[in-house]
Specification:
By secondary structure, the protein is mainly alpha-helical. The protein has 13 helices and 2 strands; from the N terminus they run ααββααααααααααα. The longest helix is centred in the first third of the chain and has 35 residues.
Amino acid sequence: MTSRAPSRRGPVSAFFAGRPRLRLGVLLTPPLLWLLVAYLGSIAVLLVTAFWSVNGFTGAVQPDFTLANLQNLVSDPLYREVALRTLLVALGVTVIDAVVAFPIAFYMSKVASPRARIALLVAVTTPLWASYLVKAYAWRILLEPNGPIDIVTGGHSPGYGLPATVITLAYLWLPYMIIPVFAGFDRVPDSLFEASADLGAGTGRTVRSIVLPLVFPAIAAGSIFTFSLSFGDYIAVTIVGGKTQLLANLIYGQLVTANNQPLAAALSIVPLVAIILYLLAMRRTGALENV
C-alpha cells in the first residue's frame, strides 16, 4: 500500500479547496463593494445634484428640487450645438482610428515576422507610457503657425481648431483601437485566407466577406475606448482646439469658473447617457466580449 504524500497547502488554501464559488465570491467582494460605493455612488450623487440650485447672492449650492438645469440643456441652443459637435468629434475620431488601425493590426498579426511583431507591439504600446500632456503639447508645437507641419506642407497646416482637436484625439487613442483589432485578427485562422484564395476570391472580396465579419466585434470593442475617451476629453481641445468648445469644456467651465455645480452635473448627464447608449449598441455586436 502506497502512502499519500502530505499536502503542502496552507490553511487558507485548504479552506478554499473544493469551494470554487466561495473562493470567487470572497475575491470579488472588495472590488464589487468599491464599484457600488465609489463609482455608482458618485454617479448617484451627480444625478441628484443636477436637480439642485445655486443661490444667486452667495453662490452656495442649495438642495432645492428644480428642473431649471435640465430645461436649460433643452432650451439653450449653445448646449445643443456643443453636444452635437462633441458627438460628431467622438464618432469622427473613432472612424479615423478604425481605418488606421485595420491595416496596421492586419500586418502585425498576419504578415510581420515574430520578431517584427514584437517590435511593432512595443512601438504601439510605448506611447501609452508617455504623459498625456507631453503628447498633447507636442501636437500643439507641430500644428502651430509657422510650425513643422506648416513648413513641410507649404503653409497648409490646420492650425488650432476643430481639425487639430480631431487629429490630436485620434493620435492619443489610436493604441486603444490597434490592440483589440490586433487580438481580433490573431484569432482568425490563416486557413480561411488560404481557402478564400483557393476559391478564387480577390483581396477585396476576402476582406468584405471573411475578415470584416470576424474582426468587426474587435473593432467595435476598440471603438468603445476611442468613443468614450473622446467624448469626455477636455484637455486636448484646450491645448490645440483654439476657440473650439466641446461638452467637457462646458462642464469644466461651469464647475470651476462659474461655480455652478448643479448645471455642471446636468451637463454631465449628456455624455453619461451617450456612452450608455453606445455601450448598449456595441453589446449587440459582441464587442463587450472582446474588451
